[in-house]
Automatic annotation (TrEMBL):
Lineage, broadest ranks: Bacteria, Bacillati, Bacillota, Bacilli, Bacillales
The UniProt record lists the keyword Membrane: no
Start and end residues of each Aldehyde dehydrogenase domain: 7-464
InterPro entries noted in UniProt: Ald_DH/histidinol_DH (IPR016161), Ald_DH_C (IPR016163), Ald_DH_N (IPR016162), Aldehyde_DH_dom (IPR015590), ALDH-related_metabolic_enz (IPR051020)
Originating organism: Pseudogracilibacillus auburnensis
EC code: 1.2.1.97
Tagged with keyword Oxidoreductase: yes
Catalytic reactions on record: (2S)-3-sulfolactaldehyde + NAD(+) + H2O = (2S)-3-sulfolactate + NADH + 2 H(+)
Protein origin, superkingdom: Bacteria
Keywords, sorted A to Z: Oxidoreductase
Annotated function: Part of the sulfo-TAL (or sulfo-SFT) pathway, a D-sulfoquinovose degradation pathway that produces sulfolactate (SL). Catalyzes the oxidation of 3-sulfolactaldehyde (SLA) to sulfolactate (SL).
PANTHER family hit by this protein: ALDEHYDE DEHYDROGENASE (PTHR42991:SF1)
The protein's name: 3-sulfolactaldehyde dehydrogenase
Length: 468
């Protein structure tokens, strides 16, 4: 692990498993409380160094790190596919996005601008002029999940470096190697020591220190709602940025192009084994289209090849662990016991769970209210847009949604009324580029990610006024 610019080994280690066959892929050091305190102490110096780095150095380092990742892209892809759930094709796409995220971070480093302030807008202040500029807040604590083990780390480190902050990354224990490799890229790019630490270990042992320490000025967390609520209670007076998942809805209206809609929604439901905060979980289809949509959705789902992650012909690999696959199986079985209908899938083999489609699910069922985070999608028949919006909003999440229609008036009705952070028109909820503001409402989180918007979170305005 990287602590304050130095690579550290420990006698006590944590095994990192390949979920496909449960073999040990690698090991990482198991950090102690003392290691975390050391990382924070180093970051206190690193924050001063980072704040003094001129912009041209920041963007040069970010571009060099991007070059390093691109140059070693197959190693990064193989690592993502080995320690996580993604197929090699999905992993390569994530590496490409990571490069883009770092490049965008370099570009946005040029654009951390302030504004002049017209103090003479208030009578008696005609002899005053001034402006504000943005300054880095200090040390960022970043806690990242397993499902995008490289690009979501880049979404923390890239903006932190661009905005002149120090950052300590605690990656998911299940998938820490990708984060360590990204730290190698920044090391090779010449990032000054102590600006970045990537520390591996048990969250229960080192996590509380990281989030509650008074030197930490912001906690950037991507993960589950329950953990996010615990962090918020423990963090104290500091900035919080949280992306806490969802159970994203998609609405399919009478005039939708069914072929395009099915293709988009199947991909959106089963990309990365459904372990995706944007993943399509609930689809509301109007009555006139429902039977055709169901038939074509099942046909498309049944073409998915589930198997070896490293096989380029594979569409879907295993979940992150057999434990997670068992949980998904239990949720599906609970819904079936409550009267749901299984249209396809519902089979588990170790950590593998087949692409699964349910209908006749009660809107009060756990699987309809919570984030399944697995390859399961629920189909609901609705009368019209009003009913679809009412049911889509009837959960404690609101990250992104999708709607398929050719009617611009209906699209704007959905824009106005859906309680989400983003609405994709004629796309599924599973759409994102790394330069857009990304985040949700209700239980889906606080603040916005996306490089430019993360930088806004990681900086503060300072007002300067001259009395002439």
């Amino acid at each position: 692990m990287l602590i304050g610019g130095r690579w550290i080994e420990k006698e006590e280690t944590i095994n990192v498993y390949d979920p496909q066959d449960n073999t040990i892929f690698s090991t990482v050091p198991k950090a102690t409380k003392e290691d975390m305190l050391h990382a924070i102490e180093a970051a206190e110096e690193g924050a001063k160094i980072a704040a003094q780095m001129p912009v041209h150095e920041r963007l040069s380092i970010l571009n060099k790190a991007a070059d390093y990742v691109l140059e070693h892209s197959e190693l990064y892809a193989e690592t993502i596919a080995s320690e996580g759930s993604k197929t090699i094709t999905e992993a390569r796409a994530e590496v490409s996005r990571c490069v883009d995220t770092l490049r965008i971070s370099a570009e946005e480093a040029r654009r951390i601008n302030g504004e002049t302030i017209p103090f003479d807008q208030m009578p008696g202040h005609e002899n005053r002029v001034g402006y504000y500029y943005k300054f880095p807040i200090g040390i960022i604590a970043a806690i990242t999940p397993f499902n995008d083990p490289l690009n979501l780390v880049a979404h923390k480190i890239g903006p932190a470096v661009a905005s002149g902050n120090a950052i300590i990354v605690k990656p998911a224990t299940l998938t820490p190697i990708s984060a360590i490799l990204l730290a190698e890229a920044f090391d090779a790019a010449g990032l000054p020591e102590k600006v970045l630490s990537v520390i591996t270990g048990s969250g229960s042992e080192i996590g509380d220190i990281l989030i509650s320490h008074p030197s930490i000025r912001m906690v950037s967390f991507t993960g589950g709602l329950e953990t996010g609520e615990q962090i918020a209670k423990k963090a104290g007076l500091k900035k919080l940025s949280m992306e806490l998942g969802s159970n994203s809805p998609v609405i399919v209206l009478d005039d939708a192009n069914i072929e395009d809609t099915v293709s988009s929604c199947v991909s959106g439901a089963f990309w990365a084994v459904g372990q995706n905060c944007l993943g399509v979980q609930r689809i509301f289809v109007t009555e006139s289209n429902f039977d055709e949509f169901v038939q074509k959705f099942i046909t498309k789902t049944n073409t998915y090849k589930v198997g070896d992650k490293k096989d380029e012909a594979t569409n879907m690999g295993p979940l992150i662990s057999e434990k997670e696959a068992i949980r998904v199986e239990e949720w599906v079985n609970e819904a079936l016991d409550e009267g749901a209908t299984l249209l396809t899938g519902g089979k588990r083999d170790g950590a593998f769970y087949s692409p699964t489609v349910l209908t006749n699910v009660s809107t009060d069922a756990k699987i309809a209210k919570e984030e399944i985070f697995g390859p399961v999608v629920l189909l609901f028949q609705v009368k019209d847009l009003d009913e679809a919006i009412e049911k889509a909003n009837d959960v404690n999440y609101g990250l992104q949604a999708g709607i398929f229609t050719k009617d611009i008036k209906l699209a704007f009705e959905a824009i106005k009324r859906l309680e989400v952070g983003g609405l994709m028109i004629n796309d599924s909820s599973d759409y994102r580029i790394d330069g857009m503001p990304f985040g949700g409402v209700k239980g889906s989180g606080l603040g916005r990610e996306g490089v430019k918007y993360t930088i806004q979170e990681m900086t503060e305005p300072k007002v300067i006024q001259f009395k002439l």
